[in-house]
Prior knowledge:
Layout: E1 12-22, H1 30-34, E2 38-46, E3 52-54, H2 60-64, H3 75-92, E4 99-103, H4 109-118, E5 121-125, H5 129-137, E6 141-143
Parallel strand pairs: 4-5, 5-6
Antiparallel strand pairs: 1-2, 2-3
Helix pairs in contact: 3-4
Amino acid sequence: MRKFCRICSSKILNILDFKKVALSGNFLTKKEILNEKKYPLNVGVCISCKHLQIQNIIKPDKLFSHYDWETGVSLTNLNLIADLLKELKKKFKLDYRSKLIEIASNDGSLLSLANQIYKCSVLGVDPAKNLAKKIKKKKIKKIVKFI
Length: 147
């Protein structure tokens, strides 16, 4: 359990102890839920800079190497992405000369739409290996790595 702040390295005061909880984002059967591994979850606040943070460290490959949920399956998400791209066009004048990088690009929905509309160069960064194939089909360059 982390005892020092990620921001300023001062001591952390533990304020919430959720005991052990399962990782989120999985769609499990009832039988799988019974055998699901659980991890301690504590929330603390830095006594100096007041940064609120999770104190328990779980290896990134446990958390991020596989996602069952995809951005593009939700029409609401796709509409939000379209609205965001309109705002980005206004603010940054997106066009075919633009270069767009998305961290945590998931299935590449945002990048795919940006590429279709503005013909800009796009790159996704996401550690989920199972989603890399989906992005490849959309002809989007992707770095499959936790950074």
